[in-house]
From TrEMBL:
Domain EAL: start-end pairs: 1-249
Biological source species: Paenibacillus silvestris
Protein's recorded name: EAL domain-containing protein
Superkingdom, taxonomy of origin: Bacteria
Amino acid sequence: FIHELALSHAIEKEELYVQYQLIYHPAKQVVIGAEALLRWNCSARGIVQPNNFIPVAEETGLIVDIGYWVIRQACKDWHLLQKEYGDEFKLSVNISRVQLNEEDFVDQIMQIVREEEVAPPSIELEITESTTVHSMQDVQQTLHRLRAHGFTIALDDFGTGYSSLSMLTLLPIDKLKIDRSFVADGNAPLIAAMLAMASALQLQVIAEGIETYEQYMMLKEMGCWGVQGYYINRPMNRDLLPKQTEIGR
Ligand code: G
Ligand code: G
Ligand code: MN
Ligand code: NA
């Protein structure tokens, strides 16, 4: 049980921080991006995992301000990471349904990237299928506006929610992130089918939860565009991330 009051002070008390997990391009053998993963170092209970406080943040609406804080932090870190990984480097940020439903979400995120001097194509927004269960038309419109500004959109946890396939035609997206459960199951035929489908729809694919050399080689040989997982790196603070030259696989 997370006390809402404690969470509501987390930003001002500087208890929030972001860790990063690299996204690696197996064909080119280069880092192409990273996903921002929020952490909370609570003074009362220590490090709280996102699965334990993001639902509370969503229920209370605190996720809106926390989410803007994450986006701003990602923009600040982008400048530093881009020096290491190059101009094409993208930072992905998880966006919850509650954030997307904010009427001024597009204006707010545009203001943040302007102030932080980051171009929208350097930022990818990860949404989940559950993001889209309610008010599909509003979500569609918001995503279209974000893409018109140059942000890219990734459908996260792909294959785990309801109506996965209809989402692909309903939502304007650029990428699929194959949920790590499919990688863990070693379900090669299913992954191959997802890759073929994504290719037909001209979507790039990132496979999540790559933990072993065998999983890495399988996805690489299948032509998967990007991979992410403990095999590349555990989520970690920006200054500890492996350098481009340290991460040849
Ligand atoms: O590292 P992991 O335990 O970080 O993340 C657990 C879950 O929390 C994932 O489903 C991830 O998408 C979600 N998550 C991590 N960071 C954020 C964030 O900044 N915003 C939102 N909305 N979800 C996040
Ligand atoms: O739901 P989302 O994909 O945004 O969140 C990613 C979650 O998966 C985070 O909790 C992150 O810490 C976790 N994660 C990242 N890589 C691996 C991995 O290789 N194995 C496992 N088991 N979890 C991972
Ligand atoms: Mn994600
Ligand atoms: Na995911």
